[in-house]
Amino acid sequence: MTRSGKIKTRVANKPNVALMLTLGLLALVTVFTMVTMNYGKVPFAQAMASAVGDFFQMMLQPGLAGHFTLPDVVEGLFVSLALALLTTFIGAVIAFVLGLLAASNLSNRAVSNVIKVFMSVARAVPTILWVLVFSVAIGLGPEAAVIGLLFHSVAYLVKAYSESFEEVDPGVIEALRASGASWWQVVFQGIVPEKVNEMLSWTFIRFEINFVNAVAVGAVAGAGGIGYQLFLAGSFYYNIHEVGLIVYLCLAVAVVLEVVATRLRKRYIVQH
After folding, report:
1. Contact at 8 Å (CB) between 248 and 233?
2. Shortest CA distance to 216 belongs to which of 202, 231, 201?
3. What are the helix (H) ranges across 61-182?
4. Which helix (H) or strand (E) holds 262?
5. 8 A C-beta contact, residue 152 and residue 242
6. What contacts 47, CB < 8 A, 6 or more positions away?
7. From CA 3, how far away is CA 19, in angstroms rounded?
């Protein structure tokens, strides 16, 4: 309360002060870095103006410049989608089994802890780094991209699945066990029917993430797809018009995936 009797909506406690100091320090470091960064012989203001101009030109004037044809770009888009679909499907199957073993209410505590620790380590490593590791191990190509994306997909889905399984009412599991149901019968009669909607939801979210990652690692692992074409257009041909077109195609796919996910959720999950 203030002396006039008003209630303070913001109290300067230690967490708030620490947060404000951290944000202020980050803002100062960002401004200092941008001002002192070596832009070559180009002044900072001119470099920023040129970057903004290139961005608007890229987004407002997309098109092809002869390096790719429209069928080539569309084919690359479907290659990236296929890569995302393959890694999501395989990852979901593996994650389902590991998720059951990682759930504390369905598995041994030691096994559950070991799987959770290993999956935490796998999630801590970025997808790009996994792809680079397997690129060194088995060579550049779609195989390295699939395995790299698969590692992170499995780690992500195991966490999502296992936490969903652990939220099942213990009474349901105890009732099935008391009636003589086997472990697999408990899983498919008590766990899966209750959590299938959440599993589908998490899996579709991971599919969207895998598509973004497939575009990002297309050039890194030599897996092809629209990501490799984006790399060529931006870093080899230096054509911002082609970059703009590819970016718009990727955005269109992202919007379509979001619309499909929303409709499926409303029709099969929310109503159920």
Report:
1. no
2. 231
3. 70-102, 109-124, 127-138, 142-166, 170-178
4. helix 240-264
5. no
6. 39
7. 27
Q: What is the mean pLDDT of residues 238-244?
A: 86
For the chain, what's the residue count?
Answer: 272
**Regarding predicted confidence, which is higher, 34 or 56?**
56
Residue-wise pLDDT tens digits, 181-211: 888 888 888 888 888 888 888 898 899 888 8
CB neighbour list of residue 153: distance below 8 Å, 6 or more residues apart: 87, 88, 91, 92, 95, 206, 210
Q: Which two tokens stand for residue 136?
A: 């060194």
The whole-model pTM stands at: 0.77
Per the CB < 8 A criterion, the answer to whether 145 and 83 are in contact is yes
The count of other CB atoms within 10 Å of the CB of residue 180 is 7
> Measured between alpha carbons, how far is 122 from 147 in angstroms, rounded to an integer?
12
* pLDDT band at residue 1 using 50, 70 and 90 as cut-offs: low
Tokens of 97: 């089994």
3-state secondary structure 12-72: CCHHHHHHHHHHHHHHHHHHHHHHHCCCCCCCHHHHHHHHHHHHHHHHHCCCCCCCCCHHH
The span from the CA of 40 to the CA of 218, in Å, is 30
